[in-house]
Amino acid sequence: MSESNKYFISENNVPFKQEFQFGLSVDCVVFGYQEGQVRVLLIERNADPYKGSWALPGDLVSLNEDLEHAANSVLNKLTGLKDIFMEQFHTFGSVNRHPAGRVATVAYYSLVKSSNYHPVASAWASSIQWFDIRELPDLAFDHKVILEKGIRTLQRSIQYRPVGFELLPLKFTLSELQALYEALLGFKFDKPNFRKKILGMNLLTPLDEVQENVWHRPAKLYKFDEGRYRSLRDVGFTFDITLKSS
Q1: Helices 191-200 and 174-185: crossing angle, nearest 10°?
Q2: What is the model's pLDDT at position 2?
Q3: Neighbouring C-beta atoms of residue 71, cutoff 10 Å
Q4: Does 91 lie in the same domain as 45?
Q5: Are 59 and 155 members of one domain?
Q6: Helix axes 174-185, 143-160, angle to 10 degrees
Q7: What residue numbers bound the domain in which 76 lies?
Q8: CA distance 131 to 54
Q9: Calpha distance 135→103 (Å, rounded)
Q10: How many domains does the chain fold into?
Q11: Final residue of a domain: which of 98, 130, 159?
């Protein structure tokens, strides 16, 4: 077989050999929430390129791996986290985004109650840390762009889907719920309007319990009724927390 016939030619006349000199990776944007702060989990790289820099947990995808499995596997390998909510949100494919060559990355975002998880750096991550999304270090690769896109995606999602409840304790007050949405969206809500809106959707179950060990008057506790939300969604209900800020 001649050299010119060794490889099939694609529709745009590019040899498949050239097309397959291409890498694919996954990167994970893990959001947590604690004490009024929305935080993101970053690793300190102990491998080139960008050794010593902070980055999102991520790595190349093996030839025999599905994307979702790869994202979960990479996150577990670098941080110890597993079995958490993850959702694909964007693909980043700038030609020069990786110094080693042509690499596109598929990004996933995750939501966790950071007080419930204790990530541990492993593999080639030398350390790991939660950072307030308003006070971030310089990031490796194009991870700043990926993180900014992840924040915008989260801000859109929480207004039209009840994913924000992933960041709260199982039992919470209305004030804690409002503080979460204000931290995520970056503005203050009018308190009466917020409560009227959220209670009017009938997705919260009031409990016969109040806060404990607080210096102020204990507030009533609620739970998110996921079963009711699914039933309502199936008949056309739309979660919508959009409100005018105060």
Answers
A1: 110
A2: 45
A3: 26
A4: yes
A5: yes
A6: 140
A7: 23-159
A8: 11
A9: 28
A10: 2
A11: 159
The two structure tokens encoding residue 160: 């039209």
In angstroms, rounded to a whole number, what is the distance separating the alpha carbons of residues 242 and 148? 21
Select from 16, 26, 25 the least CA-distant residue to 101: 25
Are the C-beta atoms of 30 and 59 separated by less than 8 Å? no
pTM more than 0.85: no
Q: How far does the chain reach from its first CA to its final CA, in angstroms?
A: 73
User: Is the pLDDT score of 8 beyond 70?
Assistant: no
- Name the token pair of 135: 């006070």
Task: Supply the mean pLDDT for the chain.
Answer: 86
Q: Verify that 140 and 175 share a domain, yes or no.
A: no
CATH of the domain at 88: 3.90.79.10
Tens-place pLDDT, residues 51-108: 999 999 999 998 889 999 999 999 999 999 988 889 999 999 999 888 888 899 999 9
Q: Which of 6-15, 30-39, 162-171 is the least confident region?
A: 6-15
Distance from C-alpha of 169 to C-alpha of 89, rounded to nearest angstrom: 25
Residue 108 inside a domain? The answer is yes
Report helix, strand or coil for 64: coil
- DSSP sequence for 80-133: ---S-EEEEEEEE--TTSSTTS-EEEEEEEEEE-GGG------TTEEEEEEEET
Which of 110, 108, 97 is closest to 23 using CA atoms? 97
- In this model, does residue 179 exceed pLDDT 70? yes
